[in-house]
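Notebook entry, structure prediction.
Reason for the run: the old model in the group folder had no record of what sequence produced it. Starting over properly, with the input documented here first.
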Amino acid sequence: AASARAPWLALAATWLLAGPLFIARFNIDPAGFGIHIVQRMHLLPCLLLAIPLAVGLDWLGRARVAAASAVWGVLAFPLLVVPSLAAATAEHSPAVERSLVDTLRALPPNAALITDGDDYNFGIPYVQAVLGVRPDVIAINWPALKRPWSLARVRARGITWDPQAGGQEPASVRLADYLNATGHPVFVDDFEANILRARTCYPFVGLMAVLPPGATPPGLDAIAARNATAFEGFDLSYPLPGPDDGFATLVHLRYAETWTRLAALYNRAGFPAQAAMADERARALDPQD
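New structure, fully documented this time:
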């Protein structure tokens, strides 16, 4: 009766909110790394559908067609799993872990890394604590720094910066200035827009190196040489990811973007030959179709 229908109506409304209505508000292009984000958002409504599916299988069992339902389950499993094997293999590429290890090793001593990317924020603590790679690098998850526990972790590394201290600049810019002033070369990802707008930066192995106020950046040839030397030490001995392979794709998009930015800088400075060489390096690292 009505009492029996109420839970199903609630489940249907939940699926509608968590699925089509929520996804309809997405402003993310489902291509490249964007498709990885979109697919992650599909998981919740798919999990909700497990409830009516389980009830349906239970009904089949009670209807004395248990053998048929068992056969259906055995057949359905490979039919659902096999088409996803290629995508799962690509997702399990060593690209992300090697990127974190190689990027940390390429940074100067006592560097500070301010990021918002999930692979940086969740992967670097693992690489440092479990693999013992470059524990001197201070990794700061900028969005989480608003939380007392995150700020306490940073302060345990000797960072006494006070986010409540006044100043005209955005807080993230003041943090970058503090770190540079206290001997910690600063690097950020592309999410730190305030820092990138307010300070002189240059590309370095998928990140942006942030200079102190008034500092003069190295020459383009010096920046290109530093990147070339760093990338020579990267372990890229795995199949190049495709355009839709999740975080492996994102890693290589960052790598390629480093050289694309250098090519743009060379073109702007009137050095087309060097720009062409940088473009060639970008194409070699870019995810392939």
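Summary: The mean pLDDT is 89.
The old model has been moved to the deprecated folder.
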